[in-house]
Amino acid sequence: MKYYTTMESPLGTVTIQTTDIGLTGIWFENHTTMPSELGEHNQQHEVLRLAKQQLQAYFAGQLTQFDLPLAATGTAFQQQVWQALTEIEFGESLSYQQLANRIGNPKAVRAVGAANGKNPISIVVPCHRVIGANGSLTGYAGGIEVKKQLLKLENIDIK
Prior knowledge:
The chain has 5 helices and 6 strands. By secondary structure, it is α/β, with parallel strands linked by helices. Helix 3 (96-102) crosses helix 4 (109-117).
């Protein structure tokens, strides 16, 4: 069973989804990867409550590392990329090439980019920290402006 709730953030409404195992998604209003079926609305679910608290602290500049159970579904390769994303520290950014190198597959830059774009748990699994090799912004399923604001919140320089 899936459960969800919403919260207001400085970047608009955020939808948070979980199962009893862990988080399955965090999306901004215009996220291209948000599913049409979210499950049962539940503001009291423990994982959703913790996620809201931690996201509020993150947006307030009081949290740099999340501690939430994760349960996103994806291919083995996607899972590998998403795990590598969780290892990018707050305030750090990587290029797609650097991320491919980190997973030990330097020739998989495009596949890494595709997996990054399918990450359903934005912010907590920080796909926004992956930028172009020249430091420029690249695509973000939640919109480039949202990505720019998340990077700014973390004091990451962008071009």
